[in-house]
Amino acid sequence: MIRILIVEDDAEKLRRxxxxxxxxxxLEPTMIEDARDAxxxxxxxxxxxxxxxxxxxxxxxxxxxxxxxxxxxELLREVIDRDVYHTPVHMVGLTANEEALAVARPRFDxxxxxxxxxxxxxxxWSERLARLAARALAQAKGAPxxxxxxxxxxxxxxxxxxxxxxxxxxxxxWSIRDVPGDPTTYHRGSFFRDGIRREVVAAxxxxxxxxxxxxLAMKMVxxxxxxxxxxxGILAGVRGGCELGDIVVADPSWDYGSGKRSAREGAPAFAxxxxxxxxxxxxxxxxxxxxxxxxxxxRIRRGWRGGSRDRLLSxxxxxxxxxxxxxxxxxxxxQIRGQHRKTLGVEMETYGVFVAAEESPDPQPRCFSxxxxxxxxxxxKDDGHQAYAAYxxxxxxxxxxxxxx
Length: 405
Prior knowledge:
The protein is an alpha/beta fold. The protein is about 35% helix and about 25% strand. It is built from twelve helices and 16 strands. The strands form three sheets. Strands 2-1-3-4-5 form a five-stranded parallel sheet, sandwiched between helices. It has a five-stranded mixed barrel with strand order 10-15-14-11-16, surrounded by five helices. The protein starts with a strand and ends with a helix.
């Protein structure tokens, strides 16, 4: 059955739009719902999927506020950009205000959407709206159900200890989730945000490296259809860019071994050709906000139960390179920095997970990596800081999920 949402605060205009839609053969009153303000419309589109959205450009943000064209355009932007909403298959803007029409048209054109001038003395608007509704009805009758997300977050760790162990130490009521025919052990848990229970599933790859984590990422995407795909764990930092325990958000990530190896005048040469993958803008903005929250980061530091940590903790967004080998060579790290002078970290998995997310079928997850610095990939490298780094990464992941995701 088709579902139509009309976002309109003018009672007479709402009546006329509804009458127009009911003139389309096959449409019934039970198929049409309405919202009188942007807040109510967002709530409805968060909870249900609509085939057609008829959006008045000049609407109130809330019922007790006056109409404003910014409210209608902001609603459109959020519904398209944020995956907490079910984006309607068809959308059309409808306004009686010619100035609002002129302002809105570029935004609708950018997303290949129609915006129509409502004129009660003319039938042009109603004819266009009826044609669009008829197409939406025909498509809804013949189309298979649209794929939807399953769990809220899938978490991938490269190591069972200490990375996955730190994630499973989060108070999220974890239990084992076996998948028939799949040898991977999955852990399912949940957390609350905005009073709603959110589901999370976590697993460790069978071994380190981009291939193993990329395969696990694709399995988890296909099996659990997560809204978000996260890489949590530890990495080697670059001296001068971060400190032990700091949380590093990969933006962008790339394979530092991608390129061409050759010989020039008898000496080996390497010409890098990295393909870089960056963060989703929505995720980036929230992680950047978290990076500025000094009190929150200090709460993570003080929550460590393994001994005193006096240095303040930081969360940094920046380039992270992935490769096939564990590094203890400052010269190799310097060569990697030559591919991106602002490189903050080096590890073995994130790029593979990013590629899996980018190449997965719809509905694709938003992907990010939160890894904390456990060493500096030099001869002084040891395992003494791994537990703390795994803890800060997992703790930051928890606070991000529960507060900002």
